[in-house]
C-alpha cells in the first residue's frame, strides 16, 4: 500500500506543477525539450518560488530560484519525454 500511495502522491505533485505552478511563471512559453540528462530524467529551473500557490508572497523576504529534478524509470530521453508529455508537460517545439 505504501508504494501505491507514494505513486499517487507523485502523480498529484506532477499534476499540480503542470496545471497550477507552471502557468504562474511570468511570460511562460513552455518548457525546454533539451533538459534531459541522457538517462531518462528531466531537470527544470524555476526563477521564483512564488509560482507555487502554497507560498505566501507576503512572507517571502527574497525571491529565490530552485532546480527541480524529475527522476523516472525511463531508459532514454525519448521515453522520458513521452512519459512527461502524458502528464501534459508543455514542451516547446
From TrEMBL:
Keywords: Ribonucleoprotein, Ribosomal protein
Gene Ontology MF annotations: structural constituent of ribosome
Any one of the GO BP annotations: translation
Domain of life: Bacteria
Cellular component aspect of the GO annotation: ribonucleoprotein complex; ribosome
SUPFAM superfamilies reported for this sequence: RL5-like
Ranges where the Large ribosomal subunit protein uL5 C-terminal domain occurs: 11-91
Transmembrane helix listed as a keyword: no
Ribosomal protein as UniProt keyword: yes
PANTHER family: 60S RIBOSOMAL PROTEIN L11-RELATED
Family label: Belongs to the universal ribosomal protein uL5 family.
Protein name, entry field: 50S ribosomal protein L5
Native source species: Curvibacter symbiont subsp. Hydra magnipapillata
Amino acid at each position: 500500500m505504501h508504494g501505491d500511495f507514494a505513486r499517487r502522491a507523485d502523480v498529484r505533485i506532477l499534476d499540480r506543477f503542470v496545471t497550477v505552478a507552471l502557468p504562474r511563471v511570468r511570460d511562460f512559453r513552455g518548457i525546454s525539450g533539451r533538459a534531459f540528462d541522457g538517462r531518462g530524467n528531466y531537470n527544470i529551473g524555476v526563477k521564483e518560488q512564488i509560482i507555487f500557490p502554497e507560498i505566501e508572497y507576503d512572507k517571502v523576504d527574497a525571491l529565490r530560484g530552485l532546480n527541480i529534478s524529475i527522476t523516472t524509470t525511463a531508459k532514454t530521453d525519448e521515453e522520458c519525454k513521452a512519459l512527461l508529455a502524458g502528464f501534459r508537460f508543455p514542451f516547446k517545439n
